[in-house]
Specification:
The chain is mainly alpha-helical. Helix content is about 75%, strand content about 0%. It has helices spanning about 1-15, 15-35, 40-50, 60-70, 75-100, 110-120, 125-135, 140-160, 170-200, 205-215, 220-235, 240-255, 260-275, 280-290, 295-320. The radius of gyration is 21 Å and the shape is globular. The model has no long low-confidence stretch (mean pLDDT about 85).
């Protein structure tokens, strides 16, 4: 549950699930293994959890959808809370059942241990608040926040904790970071190239034209829309998909009486799932590089979580009240 909450929180503020896998994966994956969770379960959980926060404010994809679809962003923020929470509860329930089958040791909660842990992390806790207040307060840009983070971490690790030697360890860390970032850039570059190809060949437009000819009721439209968006989600990056596809599907959704706010939640939920959908879901390749595991192993590890997400997608698609609860107030 801590892993799920941490990943959702991180993704909500960064808007990029791949970043969550890269940044938190190296920290949380070894902890899961240390707690005796199986490697398959841990890989699946970390890879799938990377996109959990896309529906929570202040998610950048939510904001972008609101701008493109001309929908009130505050309404989208409200609409995403319940579906996003339901997703975490579903995956959390599965994880609890799995932990029992793996016979994970339970530990009682102790306030003394909590305060001791808090005291031990006294230098780490201020960092996210410094970054968030700096960015959203207009004091620093995102690029400057990255530099501030690096300087802060180096100072704390080198001169307070003394776990890092500036001359002996920094060159090695820089080299490993450059290799990791280089691999991620190759993956993203390939994805962007494929996205541009799909756009140039007008593949999304052709699929939507097909839907216009053969779909005549809202239920069938939503089924076809989910299939279409799952394909889009595993082949296109989320920001390109929003810019290209949203203007195309909005008129169709209006024709069938689909609320644009509800449509936004369905749209982002599909793209969230698409990140982990074989064979070309980008999170699978990022996780493969981050955890040094074969891509086929990632396919198998994420399958149970993927099935849970599809069940969740069906629930939020056909129960619009989960997204539109705020309209009753």
């Amino acid at each position: 549950m801590v892993v799920l909450a941490a990943c959702a929180f991180f993704t909500a503020f960064t808007g990029a699930s791949g970043v969550t896998i890269i940044a938190l994966g190296g920290l949380l994956y070894p902890l899961l293994l240390k707690e005796k969770y199986s490697k398959k379960f841990s890989l699946g959980l970390m890879t799938s959890s990377g996109s959990l926060g896309l529906l929570f404010p202040p998610s950048i994809p939510l904001i972008l959808y609101g701008l493109i679809a001309q929908v009130n962003v505050d309404q989208l923020f409200l609409a995403g809370i319940v579906p996003g929470t339901v997703m975490i509860l579903i995956v959390g329930a599965y994880s609890v059942v799995k932990s029992k089958s793996l016979k994970i040791e339970k530990r009682p909660f102790h306030w003394d241990a909590a305060f001791n842990s808090l005291r031990e992390t006294i230098w780490e806790i201020p960092l996210p608040f410094i970054i968030l207040f700096g960015i959203y307060g207009g004091i620093i840009t995102v690029a400057e926040a990255a530099a501030v983070t690096v300087v802060y971490v180096i100072v704390v690790e080198s001169f307070i904790y003394k776990d890092l030697h500036p001359l002996k360890d920094l060159p090695r860390i820089m080299r490993e970071s450059m290799v990791l970032v280089g691999a991620i850039l190759i993956i993203l570059g390939t994805a962007m190239g494929f996205t541009n190809y799909l756009i140039d060949e007008q593949i999304p437009m052709q699929l939507l034209d097909f839907m216009k000819q053969y779909i005549h009721d809202p239920l069938t439209f939503l089924i076809a829309l989910n299939v279409f968006l799952l394909i889009v989600g595993c082949m296109m990056d989320i920001f390109s998909a929003i810019v290209v596809v949203v203007p195309l599907i909005l008129p169709l959704a209006n024709r069938y009486g689909i609320d644009p706010v509800h449509l936004g939640i369905i749209f982002l939920a599909n793209l969230e799932i698409g990140y982990s959908t074989p064979p070309v879901g980008i999170n699978l390749f990022i996780a493969s590089q981050r955890f040094n595991q074969p891509i086929i192993k990632l396919f198998r590890s994420t399958l149970p979580f993927l099935l849970l997400m599809i069940v969740w997608l069906m629930v939020i698609t056909y129960i619009p009240e989960l997204s539109l609860w705020w309209k009753d107030e």
